[in-house]
Amino acid sequence: MCSRNRGSTTIECLLGLIITTILIPIVYTSMRILINHEYFNQDAQDEIALYQLRRIMLVSSDFYVSNGNLLGNYDGEEFEIKSSNHTYLTPGTLIFFSSIDEGYFSEDNGIFYYEYLRNGKRHKRVVAYE
């Protein structure tokens, strides 16, 4: 008569229990980080949009602020950067600030700012120096 090994030994059960005990805190911590992390980081997107604005200002000249819009001269042609829920360059380029309530340009002592309101918090960022 042949003997068959059925079931599992106590050592196998304890080993499985130890591995599970070690993995539960690791998985729990990882899940909390993922849940608490915003999928869309607005600060990073703002930095990208500000980089676009600064690049436009770097290659343009004779810029000034009028009625909250930024106007200037780029390669011999006039441009205007307007802001509503998004900021856009006319003609043709969208500079994307996500989920802002309002935005406008201002100037103070040769420093150009972009000011925007998001979720009740006002942000004032330097775009260029004259």
Account of the protein in words:
The structure is a single chain. With 130 residues, the chain is α+β, with helices and mostly antiparallel strands. The chain is rod-shaped. It has a 5-stranded antiparallel β-sheet with strand order 1-2-3-4-5, covered by helices on one side. A 3-stranded antiparallel β-sheet has the order 6-7-8, with helices on one face. The chain is 35% helix and 38% strand. The longest helix has 27 residues, at 10-36.
Short recap of the structure:
It is built from two helices and eight strands, in the order ααββββββββ. By secondary structure, it is α+β, with helices and mostly antiparallel strands. A hairpin with a 2-residue loop joins strand 1 and strand 2.
Number of strands: 8
The poorly predicted ranges are: none
State the secondary-structure class.
alpha+beta
The percent range for strand residues is 35-45%
Question: In order across it, which strands form the biggest sheet?
Answer: 1-2-3-4-5
Record the SSE blueprint:
Layout: H1 10-36, H2 42-59, E1 61-66, E2 69-74, E3 77-83, E4 87-90, E5 93-95, E6 102-108, E7 111-118, E8 121-129
Antiparallel strand pairs: 1-2, 2-3, 3-4, 4-5, 6-7, 7-8
Index terms:
single chain; 130 residues; alpha+beta; 5-stranded antiparallel β-sheet; 3-stranded antiparallel β-sheet; 2 helices; rod-shaped
